[in-house]
Structure formats: C-alpha cells, structure tokens
Amino acid sequence: MVTAAVGSGWLALTSPNTVDDITEVWSLPVSRATLDVMRDAGLSLPRNDPRQYDDLAGEWWRPDGAFAMLHWLARARAALVPPAARPGALLVDLGCGAGLLAPHLVGKGYRHVGVDLTRSALIQAADHGVTVVNGDATAVPLADGCADVVAAGELLEHVPDWRAAVAQACRLLRPGGLLVLDTLNDTALSRLVAVRIAERLPTVPRGIHDPRLFVDDRELVAECARHGVDLRVRGVRPAVPGLLRWLLRRARGIGTPPDQVPRIVPTASAAVLYQGHGVRDG
Ligand SMILES: C[S@@+](CC[C@H](N)C(=O)[O-])C[C@H]1O[C@@H](n2cnc3c(N)ncnc32)[C@H](O)[C@@H]1O
C-alpha cells in the first residue's frame, strides 16, 4: 500500500510507465478538503454530503439495495467500453464507489483503477479487483494521458466543480482514448423525476443528490470539446416493465435474478438521465 497526498510529488511516480506499480494508494487530506470546499460554497447541506456513502456502505453490493440502480447503470456504461486495444490498457474509473463497474469489465482486458473520496467504498472496490486511489476527481493524482478509458458514472452530479472533474477526465485520457459517463441533467424534469419522485422509491437513497449540482448536457458537451473530447450524449432510463417487475418483487421481498434486473435503454430525451461517450483527439 502506498500512502501519499495530492501535491506530495508522487504524481511523477505514476507516469504511464510506472502506473503498473501501483497497488493501492490512499491519500489523506483530500476528502476533508473537498468537504471544506463544499462548506465554503454553502453546499454543505445534508444533501450530497459524501459521508452519506459511509452510512450506506452496506448497500453497495446488495442487488435490491439502495444502490440497485447503480448496478443497472454500470452494466449499460460498460457496454460502451470496447475490449482493450492493447495489452496493459488502463481504465480509470472516477468516483468508482465500491467498484460496481468491475464485474462488467471482466474479459475486456483492462486494468481497472478506481478513484474515489470514500474509503469505505474503496475497501469494497479493492475486494472486487479494483486498484484503488483515495482521491478527489477534481485533482486526480495520476499522470496525463495514462488512461485508455476514463469512466465517470454518476459522479459529475455530485461534484461542486464538475468542470474541474471533466478537465481531469480529459487530461487523463491518452489521444484516441475513450470517455464514458452518465449523469443527471440540469432540468426541472430531472429535479422532479430524480429527486422528488425517485427518492421516494427504493432505487435512489434520500438526500443523495443536490439538484443544484445537476449538469446541463450542452454545457458538458462544450466543456469536453474545450478539452479535446467530442462527447455524444443520449438520454437513458430504466426499461419500464423491468422496473415495475423489480419494484413489485422487491415490495414482496422476492429477489430479482441478475438476468431479470431492469435494463437501461436509450430514450428520446436527455432531459433527465443521460450517457455520454467520446474520443479524445490527437
Ligand atoms: C452515486 S456514486 C457512483 C459510484 C460509481 N461510479 C457507480 O456508478 O457505482 C458517487 C460516487 O462519487 C464519489 N464522489 C463524490 N464526489 C467525489 C469527488 N469529488 N471525487 C471523487 N469521488 C467523489 C462518492 O464517494 C461516490 O462513491
């Protein structure tokens, strides 16, 4: 295990040539610093406080638990990731949580490095084969161009400065590398569906989102373009029949087999939940 802090000089140690040497990286002050930034910005309400993930630590890998929908989204995100084009290819998973993407990457040939603020989640991610970095997505302690793929699943809508996280995602990508993400749009419909409605269902924990942080899809596309990534977005949602079956079974206390959990399907509008994918130029 390596213990290091952002800015302590170990960035140089994580150049593309040496990233293979990382096993686990725990950086100390980043989580607190981010909380302070949120406080300074007046955002330190119970909503979106990252410490909620500690309280919910037991939920990550429960298929019918509070993070069930993250499992469905992880599968849909992984479907956008092609098999690795070269041996030793690196996928950097920003805001990896407990590593829910990991099972869906099996056989694709990537080394999966996950970056997250929440240690309790990272411990579980490491148990699922993810090489974990305890750090902030807005100051990632990994070298420029080290990643073949950067994933940012359900992250940006939790980051007070989402533009900084996007800049980091693009910086990490090698030329030709792929960015895949999903997030919530900054619309009235999104606030209604993803907060007021979804937080009353067992698919989204109450208070996990601060709708003021939701990310306008056009602004995201423009920001990615500024950093050399031509992002394409499309709306997605859980398929309704599968969602209703899942809710019914869950209400009856019956588990849903993995092959019958709701599928995430494209939808005409990106006004609520959307996926993005794009290739870094150069
Ligand atoms: C909704 S969860 C998504 C987790 C994972 N990507 C998934 O889809 O299963 C959001 C995650 O982002 C992490 N997070 C929030 N803000 C962060 C930041 N500034 N830097 C790194 N991770 C952050 C949280 O700790 C949490 O694990």
Short description:
The chain is of the alpha/beta class and 282 residues long.
Structural write-up:
This is Methyltransferase type 11 domain-containing protein. It holds the Pfam family Methyltransf_11. Residues 92-181 form the Methyltransferase type domain. With 282 residues, this protein is α/β, with parallel strands linked by helices. The chain is built from nine helices and ten strands. A ten-stranded mixed beta sheet has the order 1-2-5-4-3-6-7-10-8-9, sandwiched between helices. Strand 6, helix 6 (162-172) and strand 7 form a beta-alpha-beta unit. The two termini are 34 Å apart.
Number of helices: 9
What are the low-pLDDT stretches, counting only 5+ consecutive residues below 50? 1-32, 38-45
Distance between the termini: 34 Å
Bound molecules: S-adenosylmethionine
Number of strands: 10
- Overall average residue pLDDT: 87
Please state the CA-atom Rg, rounded to the nearest Å: 18 Å
Spatial arrangement of strands, main beta sheet = 1-2-5-4-3-6-7-10-8-9
How would you sum up the major sheet? 10 strands, mixed
Strand content: 15-25%
Structural class: alpha/beta
Mass-distribution shape: globular
**Can you write the helix and strand succession as a string?**
EEHHHEHEHEEHEHHEHEE
Helix content: 25-40%
